Amino acid sequence: MNQKNNIEEHWDLVIEGKSSLFDLKFADVWRYRDLLLMFVKRDFVSFYKQTILGPLWFFIQPIFTTIVFTFVFGNLAGISTDGLPQYLFYLAGITAWNYFSDCLTKTSTVFKDNANIFGKVYFPRLIMPLSIVVSNLVRFGVQFFLFLGMMAYFGLQGANFHITWAIALFPVLVLLMALLGLGLGLIITALTTKYRDLSFLVTFGVQLLMYGTTVIYPLSAAPEKYRKLIELNPMTGIIEAFRYAFLGKGYFTAWSLGYSAIFTLVITMLGIIIFNKTERSFVDTI
Amino acid sequence: MEKNIAIKVENLSKAYQLGQIGTGTISRDLERFWTTKIRGKEDPFLKIGQTNDRTVKGESDIVWSLKDINFEIEQGDAVGIIGRNGAGKSTLLKLLSRVTGPTTGKIKVKGRIASLLEVGTGFHPELTGRENIFLNGAILGMRKKEIERKFDEIVDFSGVERYIDTPVKRYSSGMYVRLAFAVAAHLESEILIVDEVLAVGDAEFQAKCLGKMGEVSKGEGRTVLFVSHNMSSIIKLCERSILLDQGFISDFDLTNKVIDKYQFDTHSLFSSKYIDKLTIEFNENFEISNSSFFVVISLKKQLEFNEKIIFNLKNEENVTIFRHEILGPINHNDKLIKIKVVNPRLMPGCFFIETFVTDIMNLQYLENRIQWNQFNVNYSVSDYLYNKKLMIVPQIDIEYL
Q: Pick from A55, B76, B313, B391: CA 20 to 30 A from residue B102's CA?
C-alpha cells in the first residue's frame, strides 16, 4: 500500500497556479543552456546577413560618437577630461555605457518582442534576456578591442595615461554592467506588459541617465552640489572604476564600487523575481 | 493491472479578463494586491460562476475559459480534444504546455511534454534550414547533441534536403511547414501535444504527418493529445476523446460516441419556424462514387415565392464548399426534388450536407438550418490529386420527381 502511494505521488512536473516568489527555476535555465547559445548565434547571423559592412557596424557607432563628443563637449564646451586624451576618455565611457544601455534597452522589450514565441512554446523565459546580455557581450568585446587599439596608439604617441592594478577587476566590472542592465531591463519589461507607456520612458530615460553618469565628464569635474547625486547612480562607480583601471584617472574607492555592486545585485534579484512572476501570466495580458 | 497515469488534471480553472486591461488599473491592481496578498481574502474582481459564452453578454468582465476540469490520461493513450470555438480547447493546451499558468488547480505530469501549438515557432527567415533545425529543436527543448543525432532523419522526413543550406525565407510555405513539422516529429518526449498543425501542407504531407503521429502513439507508446476540428483525423488517431463545452468537460469517452454527441449538440443549436418544411434522403451508394452523388429532398409544404431552398455542402470546419439555391415558388405537387452533384472533387474527409428553407433576403439565415447529414469520402489521396487537375466546377442537376 505504502509503495503504491509512492508511485502515485511521483510526478515529473506539477503545473500550478501559484508558486513561491523565490522559485526561480535556475535548474531549468541550466537545462536549456544550448538554447541560449542558439539565440546568441541567431542574433549574430541575422545581424550580419544582408549588410554590406557587417561587423564594421560595431566600430562605426562608438567611433562617430567619440568624435562628436570630443568636438561638442571637449572642444566647444571645454569640459575637463581629467588630463586624459579626449578620444580615450570619451571612448572608455562610451564603450562601457553602451554595453549597459544595450543590455537595458534590449531586455526591456523582451516580453513585447517575443510575445509570439512565448505564446506558443514553453522554455524558461529567462533564457531570452540572458541571451541578449551574452549577445551584447560579444559586441562589447569587439568595441573593447577598438578601445585597446586606441590605447596602444595613444600609448605610442606618449600620451599621459597609465594602467593600474584595478584592471584585475575588469571581469567584475563587466559582470556588474551586464547585471545592472539585465536587472533594470527585467523590471521594466515586466511592468510594460501592463503599463505600455513605460517603454517610451526607457528610450529617452536611458539617454538622460547617460548625462547623469560620468560618461562625458569626470566625477572630479562635477559641481559639488550635484556630486552626491551623481555618485548615487550605480553606473558612475562602475565607469569611474573602468577609467581608473585602464587610464589611471577616476574616482575609485572600495566604497564606490561596493555600493554599485550591492545596488546591482539587489536590482538583479528583484528583476528576476518580478520577471518570473510576470512570465506566468503575461500571455493573457499582452 | 494498475493504471499508469501520464497526465492528471485536478480542478483546473482559467479565468480571463475581457476588454481593456491596461487602463486605470493601477488603483485596481493595488486594491487587488491589498485584499488578496496582504489580507489574504478572495479576489474582489474575480466573480465565480460566469460561463464562457460568447453570444451572451456577461455581467462581469472576467470569464472562465476553463472551469473545474478533472481528467486523467493513461500513458500511451492518444486522446482527441474537440469542441466549438471558444469551448476552451486552446486554453487547455496552453495550460498543458505551460505557456500560461492556471488560475486555480493543478496539472500533474509524468515524463517530458513537448507541445506543438504551432509549427516552426522561432524560425528565423534569415537563417538556413540547417540553422533553423537547431534553433527550433532547442526551443522545443532538445539538447544540441540530440538534434545532431537526429539531424539526418529530420532532413529526410522533411524532404527539403536540396535546400537545407538556403535561408528559409526563400522556401515555399509548404517546404517551410514540412521542415518545421519534421523537427517537431522527432522530439523525444513521452507526451506530445498537438494543435491543428495538420491544417497546413498538401494532402500527401498531411497523410504523412498523420501516419507519423499514429506511429508515435501506437508504435512508440507515447501519450498524444490532439486538438482538431478535423473529425476524420481525430477518428483515425484517437481512441478516446474529450468534448469541451463552455469550459466544462461535456464528455470523455470513445471517440465515435463523443463525436456523435458533439455533432448532435451543434445541430440542436438551430431551430426554426420552417423546421417542418423539408426532409432529406440520401441515395444509399453515394459513398462509393466520387464522380457524382445525389440527395432527394422532400418538401412538405408549398414553397412561397419569397422563399428558397439552400443546399450547402460543407466540410468539417463548417466551410461551405459549394452552395446551390432553389428559388420558390414550388408547388406542393413537386414535393420530391432530386439534387444531383456531378464531379464534386472532394478531398478525403467527412462532409455535411445542409439544406434549409429561408426567406429570399436570407434574413432568417442562421435560425433556419434544419437538415444535416454526414458522409465520409474515403478514396485515396492520389485520386484526389488526379481529380484536382481537372478543374471542372461541380455541376448541379435539379430534377423534380
A: B76
